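May I ask for a single protein's sequence together with how it folds?
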Amino acid sequence: MKDTSHHDERIAKMSFASVYPHYVSRLERNGRTVEELHQVIEWLTGYTTKQLQEIIDNKVNFETFFKNATLNPNANLIKGVICGYRIEDITNKTTRECRYLDKLVDELAKGRKMDKILRQPK
């Protein structure tokens, strides 16, 4: 795999607040809601809607966002390709966790059922 250290550093320093509106607009264009987005984020990170608003207001970067999160134990079940990278092959922890979130938002936008997105047993 090629060296992605500059890419990893850029992702780590990017603020969650700068990406959040893009998540919202993509989902709303595809008939999904902010509430569903928050449900997905809470499942992955443990952050409540109130905590997310504080993160946005304080312009917390992704490195801190994931460092302070309580990652769902089933997050490792999130697999596949997102942004041209296979999630399972990403070695940088923060970048992999960001791609987990990107993948969940992508699945939500594509109309996948919530129980599948949240990796719920049948």
